[in-house]
Structures are given as C-alpha cells and as structure tokens.
Amino acid sequence: MADSVVERVRAASAKLRSFVAQTQNALAGRGSFNASDVRAIAEPVGSVQPIIEEAESLCVLYPDLPGELETYKGNLEEIQIALEQMRMMLVARRAHIEAARGHLATLGMWNNALRLTR
User: Fold this and answer.
1) Phi/psi-derived region of residue 85, left when phi > 0, alpha when psi is between -120 and 50, beta in every other case
2) pLDDT tier at 98 (50, 70, 90 boundaries)?
C-alpha cells in the first residue's frame, strides 16, 4: 500500500511535469497544446485528490509521502503559471485577430467605395 500511495503521487507529479514542459514548448512555438491537453490535466489531479484529503494520516504512515506531496504541489503551481501564460497568449492572439478583422472590414468598405466611384 505504501508504494501505491507514494507511487500514485509520484506518477501524478510526473504527468504534471510533462504537461508543464508541453505547455512551455507550445508557448515557445515548438509544439501544440489544445483543449484535450487541458482536460487531460484533470486526470493526475483527480487521482491524487483522495490522497490529499487523507494526507494528514497518510503522511504519518508513509514517511516518503510529504516530500512527494511537496513536489506535486510545486508541479501544480508550475502548471497553473503555464496555463495562465497560455491564456494570456490566447487573449493576445484573439485581440490580434479581432484587429485584423476590423482592418479587413475597413479595406472592404474602401474597396466598395472605390467601385462606386468608377
């Protein structure tokens, strides 16, 4: 059981670390990150939730668990930061697209005006 609890936290932490790297690669333009990736983050978080709820008693039983939970917490904080950076990038892209749409609409109006004057 000890290995099971500690290993579950360790595995979830490794998955989160992987998502952090994937998100950072996407932010740097070296990869992609989509909605299914965001949903996939919920799996490791959900797998550790029951352990966190019982953390006080489990940490007494399993001496390695506090360190693993601390690592897990750090990875959660990093994924939160990475996801916020991704959100900001998407907001900026959306603003850029909206500006481009406005520009195209203006060009369309100028084009129509030009046609009417010929």
Assistant:
1) alpha
2) very high
Phi-psi region of 33 (alpha: psi -120 to 50; beta: other; left: phi over 0): beta
Q: Could you say which DSSP state residue 118 is in?
A: -
Cα 12–Cα 29–Cα 25 angle in degrees, nearest 5:
20
Contact 26, 33 (CB under 8 A): yes
Domain ranges of the chain: 2-86
The pTM of the full predicted model, rounded to 2 decimals, is 0.77
DSSP string, 25-82: HHHTTSS---HHHHHHHHHHHHHHHHHHHTHHHHHHH-TTHHHHHHHHHHHHHHHHHH
Structure tokens at 103: 């520009």
pLDDT of residue 2: 52
Between the CA atoms of 108, 114, 117 and 118, what dihedral angle is there, to the nearest 10 degrees?
A: -120
